[in-house]
Every structure is written in C-alpha cells, then in structure tokens.
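ok new one. same drill as before - structure tokens go in, u give me an amino acid for every spot. 169 of them this time. try not to just spam alanines like last time pls lmao
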C-alpha cells in the first residue's frame, strides 16, 4: 500500500493524464502490414476504444497505519506467545521427569542402604560363626593332642598282644 497526502494525489493524477495524452499523440513508426494481417483486421468487428480507467490510490490515515502496525504486532506476539507456551510445557515435562527420577533415586538409595545393612549383619554373623569354629577346632586339637599319645600307646599294646597271641597259637 502506498501512503500519500491528498495534495500529492491531485498532482499525481494530473501527471498521469498528461502522460496518457503524450502517449496518444506520439507518432507510431511501423512496418507496412502484410496483406493477411490487413484482411484479418478488416474482418474483425470494430470495437470502440475507451480510455483505461484512471488509477485510484488508497491513502491511509494515521489511524489506519496504527491499526496495521497493531495487527502485525499482535500476529507476531501470538506466535511468540505460542512458542512460550510450548517452552513452558517442555519445562513442566522436564521438571516432572526430574522429580520422577529423584524419587526413583531416593528409593534406590533406601534399597541400597537396606542391602548394605543386611550384608554387614551377615558378615558379622559369619565372623561369629568362624570364631566358634576356630574355638571348636582348638578344643579338638587340645583333646586330640592329649588323646593321640594314649591312643597310640594303646594301639602298640594291642599290636604286641596280637603278636604274642599269634605266637602261642
């Protein structure tokens, strides 16, 4: 849209009219038409030549310009607003995912602590059992250390007895 003031409009129309008159008065330099072209032109019904309509110009007032600018700004603002809403939705989605991951992490930490406590308890139980086994082994060692020499003496005696009996028989 071209915006002009009314004074320029009047001057512009006059200039255009003068240019049209100059164009109409210009001599045309054409080649001689061929016979076929002349016949075709003569056969055509003749139409009345009319002047083209004079161009009209739309002039905008300051209010029109303001409305146009406001419409453009409003259109652009709607696009920006839509992008902001999309961005806010993505942020909310990301925040909910982070919250979900945080709760899952807290649950994993709780389960890990429980497992660690069970392992420590079982380790303590195994250490206690190993101490009991160690004590039992020492007791067995003491008993055997006292009993083995007597048992060995007893076996020697039995062997000698068997030998004596074999000799008598």
């Amino acid at each position: 849209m071209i915006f002009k003031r009314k004074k320029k409009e009047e001057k512009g129309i006059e200039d255009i009219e003068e240019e049209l008159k100059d164009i109409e008065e210009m001599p045309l330099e054409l080649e001689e038409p061929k016979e076929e072209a002349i016949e075709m032109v003569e056969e055509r019904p003749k139409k009345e030549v009319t002047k083209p309509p004079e161009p009209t110009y739309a002039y905008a007032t300051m209010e029109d310009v303001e409305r146009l600018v406001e419409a453009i700004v409003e259109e652009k603002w709607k696009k920006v607003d839509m992008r902001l809403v999309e961005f806010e939705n993505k942020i909310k989605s990301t925040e909910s995912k982070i919250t979900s991951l945080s709760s899952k992490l807290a649950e994993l930490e709780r389960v890990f602590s429980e497992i660690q406590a069970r392992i420590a308890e079982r380790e303590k139980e195994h250490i206690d059992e190993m101490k009991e086994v160690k004590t039992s082994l020492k007791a067995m060692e003491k008993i055997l250390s006292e009993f083995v020499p007597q048992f060995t003496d007893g076996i020697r005696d039995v062997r000698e007895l068997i030998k004596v009996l074999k000799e008598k028989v």
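Helices lie at 6-25, 35-43, 62-168. and btw The first helix runs from residue 6 to 25.
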